[in-house]
Amino acid sequence: MRSACTLVLTLGIVLLGVPALTGTAYANCTIDDKGHYHCDGETPGGPGGPGGPGGPDNPGPPQKQPYDTYATPACMVNGPPPNDPNAMCMNAAQACKTRGEKGIMMRYYVQWEKDGPWELVRTGCSGATDPNQPPPPVTPQQVERWLINGWLPGANVGVSPGNGHTLLNFPTIFYANQAIHYDADRSVPDGSGRTIHVHADATGFVWRWGDSSAVTHTDKPGQRYADSVPEDEYVTHRFEKPGQYLVHVDVQWTGWFEVPGEGRQNFGPATVTRGRSAPVTVLEKQDVLSSD
């Protein structure tokens, strides 16, 4: 889809109106009512047209087209990639209704070059359901973003013993203190009214110990200490210096999703980094003896 004369928005929205895109020297672009970008490519003087660059009457390279496009609800916390939480808010959900229009209020961005800055080109209502203009299919990239930004549980760390105190060079037990399976029906957050079923499993765990040692990768979440738990189910770490540390885990999820009428698609791994870290205090043996 990239570098073509017509690009569909990444978030899969149906746009209303045909505003011009401004603020760039590359091309004169518009957005049509189907959510496609047009950058002089379908006009006589546009790239490839009879009188335009690259056309039969004027051979040569056409003007540059947008590299990528992006849309997100018009909420205070939202913005362009890569740090957009893609959150929904009351303002985006109600603004169009207040104006007597359908859909949700969205912001639309264009990236003109790979790794280049994102330019805000339009804010307007879109996403209204229209049987003659169905929204584009949901993509795995969209689902991963929604899962990471809020649908999946946070990546929380537990430690045994529960008070977080341990000894120098002692194999301290850690575990991912969260659900490791996800199965739910959600509303597609684009205002289209569609539903999506998502199934995901936590398949990888990246442990960051906070003591400058290398990260540890496991395919298991670890377990609280219990006499009945086999030793190979534990995730442990030895701290080589006394002090206070903050242990964090990143959780990797894989799975599938299905939107009615669009078929089943796989996704992942999607990595969740938000969550609660575990504070750990590492003591020497003499410190423990002296405190009694």
Describe the structure.
Strands 9, 11, 12, 13, 15, 16 and 17 form a 7-stranded mixed sheet that branches. Strands 1-4-3-2 form a 4-stranded antiparallel sheet, with no helix packed on it. It is built from 3 helices and 17 strands. The chain is mainly beta and 292 residues long. The protein has helices spanning 90-98, 140-151, 285-291, and strands at 6-8, 20-21, 29-31, 36-39, 68-73, 104-111, 118-126, 157-160, 165-167, 172-176, 181-187, 195-208, 216-218, 235-237, 243-259, 263-272, 278-283.
Offer a concise description of the structure.
Helices cover 10% and strands 37% of the residues. The protein is mostly beta strands and 292 residues long.
Residues in helices, as a percent range:
under 10%
Q: Kindly provide the radius of gyration, computed on alpha-carbon positions and rounded to a whole number of angstroms.
A: 25 Å
Please state the overall shape, judged from the principal axes of the Cα atoms.
Answer: elongated
Alpha plus pi helix count: 3
Structural class: mainly beta
> Sheet with the most strands?
7 strands, mixed
- Provide the residue-averaged pLDDT: 77
Number of strands: 17
Measured by DSSP, the beta-strand proportion falls in 35-45%
